[in-house]
Amino acid sequence: MLRANFFLKLFKYKDNSSHKIAPYRSNENFTLQDQINIKIKDIDQKISENSKALVEAQIVKLRSTFSRSNNFIEQLGNNVYKTKLEDSINWHQKQLKQLYLSRRKLETNLEKLKGIFWLNQIKRILIIISTVFFIFLSLFIFLSGFMVIIYLLPSIILIFLGYLIYNKRY
Q1: Does pLDDT of 12 surpass 90?
Q2: Looking at residue 115, what DSSP letter applies?
Q3: What value, to the nearest 5°, has the Cα angle with vertex 143 and ends 140 and 147?
Q4: What is the value of pTM for the model shown?
C-alpha cells in the first residue's frame, strides 16, 4: 500500500490553473553583470598601478637627464640605464593601452547587457560633434578677430601717427 501511494503521488497530474503574475528574475543576468563589474574594478586597479609605475619611471628618466657627470664610465652606465628605462616606459605605455582597450570592451558588454548601449553611443557622438563645433567656432572667432585687426590696421596706424604729431614738442 505504501508503494502504491508513492507511485500515485509521483505520477499524479497536478492541474496548474493559476493565473497569477509571476515576476521575472534573471539571476544569471545579474551575476554576469557582477562578474563584468568585478573585472572592470580589477582592470582599474591594474591601470592605477601601471600608471604609478609609469610616472615613477618618467621621474627617474627626468632626474637622470638633469644629472651631469664627466666620468666616462658613469656616462656609459647612464646610456645603458637610459635604454632600459626607455624600454620600461614603452612597456608600461603598451600595458596601459591594452588595459584601457580591454576595459572599454568590458564596458561595452556591460552596456549591452543593461540595454543602454545605443543611448551611450548617441551621447558619445553628440559630445564629439559638440566638441568639434566649439573648436571650429573658437577658430572662427579667433580668425575673424585677427582679420578685423588687420582690416583696422591702417586706421590704427593713422591714429598713432596723429597722436605722435600732436604730442611732438619742439
Answers
A1: no
A2: T
A3: 130
A4: 0.62
